[in-house]
Specification:
alpha/beta; Oxidized Rhodanese, domain 1; 12 strands; about 35% helix; globular; TrhO; Rhodanese domain-containing protein; Rhodanese-like_dom; TRHO_N
């Protein structure tokens, strides 16, 4: 058997390493299209596996400037009316600052509701990222439709008139595949802005040598402003790229805007390099990385109470 020259051996090792890397990359399923927002795009068609099954849609939409009391009342009535017309179930919060819903029903009914919102207020709901999951067993569906009138979409304890505006916030969204890469950055920190019991069930676990995971251990969202104001928290975040995540993205919106506003108003005492949210939250990340990616555990999605 002929022996390889040192140059040939080195080339062979290089080729093997390259092949191994390609195999590893191939082994992790990545679906980049699943990471893309549905905002300003047609809703996905009903797949064959959705027949005789239940579909789920998660979505939120902030409204700036917020609805007036009269507009808020009219919006609540219109949304409930549309939900009943489409015969869907679920729950939602309707506030002057917008709408947040988790709904279930037949696949075509879910799409009819989403398109109905777009037709009703196109300047608002064309921007909405409707996150639809088809093919669920019927026992996962809600039993009734409950859309409640609320003061806010996420209870951060910040009145609408003083809550940080999203329009001027420099916090940015990235797609799930890019967020995945950012988690390998040792100069980043990851904040789970969900409640502690959700984090205990499942959370992102960055790779060794990657970003540092920070769990605020919140019982509810109203504790976040106090936590972010804590000098110990700001010391951990100072000078870092801050990655935030939550189930569907809504809790990150105000949280990231609050962090951005605080950093910009601190006169240089507290700075972050960048504030980033994963577009569509954990829900979209899991669709992009069906084998889990850097996610460990389960995603607490919803209960049917």
């Amino acid at each position: 058997r002929a022996s390889l020259s040192p140059q040939q051996a080195a080339g062979s090792r290089q080729q093997a390493a390259s092949s191994k890397q390609q195999t590893t990359q191939h082994a992790m399923q990545v679906r980049p299209e699943a990471a893309r927002s549905i905002a300003n795009r047609p809703l996905p068609p009903v797949p064959p596996e959705a027949a005789n099954k239940t579909s789920l849609v998660l979505f939120y939409q902030y409204v700036e400037p917020p609805w007036t009391p009269k507009e808020h009342k009219e919006a609540l009535k219109a949304i409930i009316g549309l939900g009943n017309k489409c015969k869907i179930q679920g729950r939602g919060r309707c506030a002057a600052e917008g709408l947040n819903c988790t709904l279930t029903g037949p696949a075509d009914a879910i799409r009819a509701f989403c398109n109905g919102l777009r037709e009703w207020k196109p300047n608002i709901f064309n921007e909405t990222d409707f996150k639809i999951t088809d093919g669920l067993d019927k026992e996962h569906g809600f039993k009734a439709l409950t859309i409640q009138k609320k003061d806010d979409l996420v209870a951060y304890g910040l009145p609408t008139e003083v809550a940080p505006t999203l329009k001027t916030s420099q916090a940015r969204h990235v797609e799930a595949d890019e967020y995945h890469k950012l988690m390998t950055n040792p100069d980043s920190v990851i904040i789970d802005v969900r409640n502690y019991y959700e984090t205990a069930i499942g959370h992102f676990q960055p790779p060794p040598g990657g970003a540092e995971l920070i769990d605020p251990k919140m019982r509810n969202s109203i504790e976040f402003p106090k936590w972010i104001n804590d000098p110990a928290t700001q010391e951990k975040l100072n000078g870092k790229q801050v990655l935030m995540y939550c189930t569907g993205g809504i809790r990150c919106e105000r949280a990231s805007a609050l962090l951005d506003a605080m950093a910009r108003s601190s006169n240089g005492k507290f700075k972050v390099k960048d504030t980033v949210m994963v577009r569509g939250g954990i829900e979209r990340y899991m669709k992009t990385f069906p084998e889990g990616g850097y996610w460990k555990g389960k995603n607490y999605l919803f209960d049917r109470r």
